[in-house]
Design a protein that fits this description.
Strand content: 35-45%
Shape: globular
Radius of gyration: 16 Å
Largest sheet: 6 strands, antiparallel
CATH topology: Jelly Rolls
Order of helices and strands: EEEEHEEEEEEEEEHH
CATH superfamily: Jelly Rolls
Strand order of the largest sheet: 1-2-10-7-12-5
Structural class: mainly beta
CATH class: Mainly Beta
Number of strands: 13
Number of domains: 1
C-alpha cells in the first residue's frame, strides 16, 4: 500500500499496489503490520456499508466523541463519491481545516480518518456504495455531527441536488458542535 499524506495531520489517502496480469489485478487493501509501521491505529473492530441510490446523496458530517472516538478507513466499492474530513482536534495545527478526495470504485483509493475528525460525503453517481472499517464500536450516545453547510467551514460540495436525512440537516454549526471535545 502507498500512504499519501494529506494537508491534515495524521490523515492519509491510501492507494493499493496492484499486481496486474491478463486476468486483472490483486492488491492488499488492509494490513495491520503496514498500518502499525506508519504509527496508525490498526485496531479495527467494526465494518459498515453505506449504499446510496441517487447521485447527490449527502451524509454527514459525523463523528463520535471520546471515549468512543473512532478511526475510520473508508473506500468506495461501487460508484464514486466526494469525501470530506474536518479536523476537530483543538490541539492540532490543522484544527477546523478540511480536506476532500474523490474515492471511486475504479481508483481503489481509501481514506484513513483519525480520531476526532468529522466525516461526510456526497455521491457523484447513482448506486454508490461505501465500505467503512472502524476502530470503535458504534455508540449512539457518542454519535455527533456538525452542519454540512457551516459558513465557517465553507466546504464547496460538488452537487447542488442534495438528498439528506433529517438528522443530518439538523446538525448544528461549529460553535455548538465541538463544545466539549
Amino acid at each position: 500500500m502507498i500512504f499519501l499524506e494529506t494537508p491534515l495531520r495524521e490523515a492519509y489517502v491510501i492507494e493499493v499496489e496492484k499486481n496486474e496480469d491478463e486476468r486483472g489485478f490483486f492488491a492488499r487493501s488492509w494490513c495491520a503490520r503496514e498500518f502499525a509501521a506508519k504509527g496508525l491505529d490498526h485496531n479495527l473492530v467494526q465494518c459498515n456499508v453505506s449504499f446510496n441510490k441517487r447521485k447527490g446523496a449527502l451524509r454527514g458530517l459525523h463523528y463520535q466523541t471520546p471515549p468512543h472516538a473512532e478511526v475510520k478507513l473508508v473506500r468506495c466499492t461501487k460508484g464514486s463519491l466526494f469525501d470530506v474530513i474536518v479536523d476537530l482536534r483543538k490541539d492540532s495545527p490543522t484544527f477546523l481545516k478540511w480536506f476532500t478526495v474523490e474515492l471511486t470504485a475504479t481508483n481503489h483509493r481509501m481514506l484513513y480518518i483519525p480520531k476526532l475528525f468529522a466525516h461526510g460525503f456526497q455521491t457523484l453517481e447513482d448506486d454508490t456504495e461505501i465500505f467503512y472499517q472502524m476502530s470503535e464500536f458504534y455508540e449512539p450516545a457518542a454519535s455527533k455531527g456538525l452542519a454540512w453547510n457551516d459558513p465557517k467551514l465553507g466546504i464547496n460540495w460538488p452537487d447542488a441536488c442534495r438528498t439528506m436525512s433529517q438528522k443530518d440537516q439538523a446538525y448544528p454549526n461549529l460553535e455548538v458542535s465541538v463544545v466539549g471535545l
